[in-house]
Write the structure tokens for this entry.
Amino acid sequence: MTVATAPHPEQPNEPRQRAPRQVKGLRHFTPDRIRRQKVVMLVVTLGPLVALGFAIAMLWGTGFQTSDAVSFASLYVVSLLGVTVGFHRMLTHAGFDTKPWVRNTWAVLGTLSVEGAPVNWVADHRRHHAHSDE
């Protein structure tokens, strides 16, 4: 059972915020800037998907067939798995080890996502974890 207590007159009602730790190369953003970035990310992420859906609806039966949708979905899933399994789990975190041909296949499938060369992707992601895991 929790007992509610009145705040001490000299203490603010809000919890104290710690000063952000300074990390070389990282900037701390204001809540307003973070909110704007979230809106931009939402538009950048969902905008193309909405446009694609609209284009498919407009072209269905004339320039876009079921076989096109199946090809798109298949390549999307393959490139998604290439990044998540190949680049992320296998290459970045060494989550599993496998034969060289399987390793190379995952790496090639990851490049279908057009996110850059595996070595650059892995380096960027390891740099990301160096600061986000602290």
In short: The CA atoms of residues 66 and 72 lie 10 Å apart. The chain has a mean pLDDT of 81. The two ends are 33 Å apart (CA to CA).
